[in-house]
Design the sequence.
DNA sequence: CACCGTCCTGTTAGCGCTAACGGTAGCGCA
DNA sequence: TGCGCTACCGTTAGCGCTAACAGGACGGTG
């Protein structure tokens, strides 16, 4: 491996010369075309190995118009959900034989989105996966009407836009149903920022489940996902003493509530039950361990790539939406409603 | 934008025809070559805008042998450090006008590394950034002797291998020095897995600082970064009552210790002081808030890209190592040594 | 006026690969 | 023998771009 004087990488021609065939035959061998005799195939493969030949993807994609690259447009990668979605997508892509190029943006402005999309398509991405969990993402993408497949995490569109998501509303309903089954009647909610689609969906799920049980949905406070916001909200909630249970829209804010409650002498779960969302690895070691809703990001990534390949390789149309079900994980932060005084 | 019948994307030739110049002149305009008159430049730019022309990067990189793409080889992206390093790198790359392709691997086998490296170089990466925080990464890379710049996070090499890192040993020493200054004499350490270079460096820092103060370094327990391992270790430590302070190698394990101590009635910081490492956003809301060591991953990413550009654009040689200093963040989990009974 | 240098533009020749087509040999069948 | 079909392999023509060279126009200088 690695001849001393390899000032230029070997190309098809070099392999061909060594194997005493035409460069086209070498190309056929590389691409597994059938009509190559076993003996020449072996000769060519030997030559490839000896020279350490590697195909030049720039040249290849110049003529095939395929790059085996999928572009991921992401924002908010500091948050647990987006970051893990990216991880899941990346892994699924690799398993499907694709590479992943990232472009991350701040916020979710239509300008930033179209910039990043251009960036990615310029690089010749065969398809796009968009992880921008804000309102308006879908509309911004639809206006661009791209000519490559686009998979949007969190919602489906039309044309070449497909979508994949974890069913946030269902997750919220599981959480609330669990609290109701424990006898709780006053169930509050600490939401994420309202311009996040997941936050909005969880609010909707909370509301619907309460409505079906004939319970009131007036205890809604808005956080910003951070533990700090959860802490501040927890302090207020501890004063008011309005609810016997709170469904918190992510685990980090739940941690903040836990600490605020601890400081104010509100016991969890004896006085108030708490449910989070995400099931971060730490959540099992909160005090007390947190009941929460787990999302399977690995599965989500796989589904994204399934949709992608269907469009790229089988020419499927877009416009479909696949949904992954979340799962309730019950731990010690929830218990039966305290007996009324 | 978007003519109705654009079944093929416009190319240089099309722009040239519209602007009544040669395709080469268009190329010059795109690449900001000086010798183009203002009037023709304006004409060409108008034509580019009207046709919505976008340069074909495959064709460009076929001839220039540059892709403006840097490959990131990463593992353990589920952990806080590697994930945030990736984030920092990605952001710095974008600011420097580069794209980022990811290849993530499981574990750190030489085989997996060389596979992923080939994958990335096949894609025509102009350089590689390696985030594989295990022993042996450097050696595996050196054996491959690549002909593109490689920046290894966590250690420097020779030849085209440069390195960038947060000074883990210094971070550990800051933590231990802080405990010593509070009067502690028996200071334990919960380490990460020994095949992680960062874990090893933190152990070394802990040991050195203790040695300089003439203190014993016999209280060492090995964890696996997870809160669960921290919890189990915490239970043992609570029984033994050996130390008045513990330096824990990351915040997640510290969380586990906190819970174990809480259950066993060991008060933090009254009975035992605790210092973590990473300063995850949640750590300020642990009970009690955690004293820890902050790493600036944004800065780390910038430094990586600085090194990269020096090699790619200015032809600098490799073999250099840049170091980012960490910072101690003091919170409520540390206090003066309890008076002896 | 001849000469040189500077500024601008065009022409030519690839970068390394694949698609499309052409050609040869060998076989089966009428 | 002639025809057609299949299996295999080679030749040619680009994909869209930039580097390198080749001018032409123009102004200044001796």
Sequence:
């Amino acid at each position: 491996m690695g001849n001393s004087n390899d000032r230029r990488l070997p190309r098809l021609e070099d392999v061909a010369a060594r194997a005493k065939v035409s460069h086209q035959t070498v190309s056929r061998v590389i691409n597994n075309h059938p009509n190559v005799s076993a003996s020449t195939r072996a000769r060519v493969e030997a030559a490839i190995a000896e020279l350490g030949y590697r195909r030049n993807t720039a040249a290849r994609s110049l003529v095939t118009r395929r790059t085996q690259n999928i572009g991921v447009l992401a924002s908010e990668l500091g948050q647990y959900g987006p970051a893990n979605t990216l991880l899941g997508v990346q892994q699924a892509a690799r398993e499907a034989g694709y590479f992943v190029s990232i472009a991350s943006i701040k916020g979710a402005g239509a300008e930033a989105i179209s910039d990043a999309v251009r960036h990615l398509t310029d690089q010749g991405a065969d398809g796009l996966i968009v992880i921008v969990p804000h309102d308006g993402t879908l509309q911004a993408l639809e206006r661009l009407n791209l000519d490559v497949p686009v998979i949007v995490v969190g919602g489906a569109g039309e044309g070449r836009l497909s979508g994949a998501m974890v069913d946030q509303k269902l997750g919220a309903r599981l959480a609330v149903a669990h609290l109701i089954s424990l006898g709780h009647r006053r169930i509050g909610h600490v939401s994420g920022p309202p311009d996040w689609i997941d936050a909005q969906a969880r609010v909707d799920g909370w509301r619907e489940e309460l409505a079906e049980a004939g319970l009131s949905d007036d205890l809604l406070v808005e956080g910003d996902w951070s533990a700090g916001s959860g802490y501040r909200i927890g302090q207020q909630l501890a004063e008011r003493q309005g609810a016997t249970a709170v469904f918190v829209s992510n685990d980090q804010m739940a941690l903040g509530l836990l600490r605020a409650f601890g400081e104010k002498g509100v016991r969890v779960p004896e006085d108030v039950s708490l449910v989070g969302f995400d099931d971060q690895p730490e959540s099992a070691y909160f005090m007390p361990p947190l009941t929460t809703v787990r999302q399977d990001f690995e599965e989500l990534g796989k589904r994204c790539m399934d949709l992608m390949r269907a469009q790229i390789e089988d020419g499927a149309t877009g416009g479909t939406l696949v949904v992954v079900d979340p799962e309730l994980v019950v731990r010690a932060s929830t218990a039966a409603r305290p007996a009324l005084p």
